[in-house]
Design a protein that fits this description.
heterodimer, A: 234 residues, Helix Hairpins, 2 domains, 8 helices, B: 422 residues, alpha/beta, 9-stranded mixed beta sheet, 9 strands
Chain lengths: 234, 422
């Protein structure tokens, strides 16, 4: 009996030692991968930060309106945020690669999903950044054109253009990320439909006089103005 | 000679048939059938009268007119002129035309004329506006002679104008070009000018035709290129400039062609203008400028309203372009009543210099910077009109001189902003 217990125990210990011996190299590989990953991620961060500074990414981000959002959230500059983000994603990628070497069942599937998700995350960020940039550019273009054409309420027009573009961009971003696709689609449809419906009512009923004045100014007064002003800049 | 490749085969054939010439007159056109006939007639009269022994050609670069403009240019023969003008040609005066369909109007047209001038080895060339129905035959000689006989490289016109005509020229282009480049050129942006073969060839080779900006504001860039290249420049008084009525909506495209081109040139010309102090006279034949008095319909109220609306609505844009003190001062004057309103010379000059520095730094899209200037220019025009409504031609001339000196005085302010960025 005693011998049996000792034998079982020694076998269990033997199994444990064997399993440990089996996992130890993998653990070391994981640690090495994590360390190498940290070094690579750090280099990538430094290089990316230099490139972003060189191409004046902060100014682009300022134009896009992203800098204002970062300041409000007490975050560092766009260059810093993006380079830190890339650092963490790269390092996390290496750590997960190391974990996958351990061969833990179930975890591998999750890790594979994470790596599959990464391209979508980057595409979503790309769309978000350039979408905000486009919103800022077009809203400013509308504002300037409206002011120079002496149109009423230029800022409202500009804000409307910005809002439409931003809503559109966010709907694409959420779709890309796969977050509540259906909900976002429906929400976008409702919001956009409501906006158009509201505008139609506002112009059709509430702003009838305004619309009339606007059209008169646009098409009737133009002729008078042409005769009114003889100034030639050149 | 790379530039001859963009010319059509047919046009090249026509140029070869013409052979070398002494004088070349360039006519960029686009749907100018109403005026072009009399202009070509006047040009021919001018050449036959003052340069009967020289080989001359009229080159028409047309942007695809649908009203038969090219046909009118090439259709007029010398015989049409003889009965009235008593002119005798000793040489054949050629008129050839080419139509371009690629690119923007004036840029391609001028490039075509410059390339033709280089190929034909024309000694003296002029470009004439297709809209100036009031031109006289003497204008041709006044633009050609300083180049052909006196060795100048660029001849710019001066005109007789209404005192409130060309306010962008008198309030911005003339004083700013004068302060920065050091030459008192009254009309730096021109549609009628003369140039030598060497200046034309140099500009043809150096201008960035392919960088997307090659065709915008060429008329001003040509002048600035001549100044930067230290070519010999003179001015000739031509006569009365035909008044062109423009709609308020035309201001922004005009600003793009002029102020945009100037701001853009400042970047590459920094080593030149940064070392210039004060300004020098340019040799001028005839008066530098003649001002006409008389009534002119101007909606002053609308000008001021558009200024005030612009300052209020574009606050965020101005905050990106201008210093806080300038924005504050603009907001202060925007609230003033019509009688108290005054956009002072100092504030106007500071505004422009800050715009130029912002353009260089590209604080926002460069075209947006130019567009944002439009309401402010209207404010300055309002002040100029109010201050000079009863002023004589001499008094206006003094006020323009005072503005020029303000531009020169504040030049270190621009330099300081420019260098702090570099």
């Amino acid at each position: 009996m005693r011998e049996m217990i000792v034998s079982e125990l020694s076998q269990a210990l033997h199994e444990l030692a064997r399993a440990f011996a089996h996992y130890l190299p993998r653990l070391i590989v994981m640690l090495i991968l994590a360390f190498v990953g940290w070094a690579i991620a750090y280099v990538v961060k430094v290089v990316l930060r230099s490139i972003l500074r060189l191409i004046k990414f902060d100014k682009l981000s300022e134009n896009a309106g992203a800098s204002q959002l970062l300041i409000k959230a007490s975050l560092p500059s766009a260059t810093e945020v993006l380079s830190r983000f890339v650092f963490w994603v790269a390092w996390l990628g290496f750590i997960l690669l190391g974990v996958s070497v351990l061969g833990i069942l179930g975890l591998q599937e999750q890790i594979a999903r994470f790596f599959l998700f990464l391209p979508r995350l980057f595409v979503a960020m790309f769309i978000l950044f350039f979408g905000l940039l486009a919103a800022s550019f077009f809203s400013r273009a509308v504002l300037l054109a409206a002011v120079n054409a002496n149109m009423p309420s230029p800022r409202v027009l500009s804000l409307a253009v910005r809002s439409i573009i931003v809503v559109f961009v966010f709907s694409i971003v959420f779709e890309e990320l796969g977050v509540a696709e259906q909900t976002m689609l429906v929400a976008f449809g409702i919001a956009f439909g409501a906006l158009m419906f509201g505008l139609a009512i506002a112009f059709g009923i509430g702003g009838r006089d305004l619309a009339q004045r606007f059209l008169e100014e646009k098409f009737v007064r133009r002729k008078n103005e042409e005769n009114e002003d003889e100034l030639s800049p050149l | 000679m790379e530039d001859e490749t963009f010319l059509t085969d047919d046009f090249l054939r026509q140029l070869i048939n013409v052979g070398e010439v002494d004088l070349l007159v360039g006519l960029p056109t686009y749907n100018n059938a109403k005026t072009i006939g009399s202009i070509v007639g006047t040009i021919r009269s001018g050449i036959l009268r003052d340069f009967p022994r020289e080989r001359a050609v009229i080159i028409n670069a047309d942007g695809g007119s649908r009203d038969g403009t090219p046909g009118l240019v090439t259709g007029i023969s010398i015989d049409d002129l003889r009965p009235t003008a008593n002119l005798n040609a000793l040489r054949t005066l050629h008129s050839i035309s080419t139509t371009y369909t690629n690119g923007t109007g004036s840029g391609v047209a001028l490039r075509t004329i410059l390339a033709a001038a280089e190929l034909l080895r024309a000694k003296a060339c002029i470009v004439m506006s297709p809209e100036s129905a009031k031109i006289e035959p003497e204008w041709i000689s006044r633009l050609l002679r300083p180049i052909f006989r006196d060795g100048f490289d660029l001849v710019l016109p001066t005109y007789r104008r209404h005192k409130f005509d060309g306010l962008l020229m008198t309030n911005l282009l003339y004083p700013m070009v004068r302060a920065l480049y050091g030459l008192r050129i009254r009309e730096p942006y021109v549609t009628e000018f003369g140039f030598s073969n060497r200046l034309g060839s140099q500009f043809l080779a150096q201008n960035g035709w392919h960088n997307g900006n090659g065709g915008v504001g060429l008329e001003l860039r040509f002048t600035l290129a001549a100044i930067s290249g230290r070519y010999r420049i003179s001015q000739s008084f031509l006569g009365e400039k035909e008044h062109t009525e423009r709609r308020a909506a035309d201001l922004v495209p005009t600003l793009r062609q002029t102020v945009g081109a100037l701001f853009s040139a400042l970047e590459s010309d920094f080593p030149i203008w940064s070392t210039v102090a004060g300004s020098k006279q340019v040799p001028t034949t005839g008066p530098e400028q003649e001002l006409l008095e008389g009534p002119m319909r101007v909606n002053r109220k609308r000008l001021r309203e558009m200024f005030s609306t612009g300052v209020a609505e574009l606050e965020s844009v101005f905050q990106a372009i201008l210093s806080p003190s300038t924005v504050g001062e603009l907001q202060r004057i925007a609230r003033l009543g019509e009688e108290e309103f005054r956009y002072s010379e100092e504030l106007w000059v500071k505004t422009l210099y800050e715009f130029a520095a912002a353009y260089q730094r590209s604080v926002i899209n460069r075209d947006h910077i130019i567009q944002a200037l439009a309401p402010l220019f209207r404010g300055r025009v309002f002040t100029f009109l109010m201050e000079n409504r009863n002023a004589s031609a001499n008094e206006i001339e003094n006020n323009i001189e005072s503005l020029c000196l303000e531009f020169e005085r504040l030049k270190p302010y621009l330099l300081q902003m420019w260098k702090s960025r570099e």
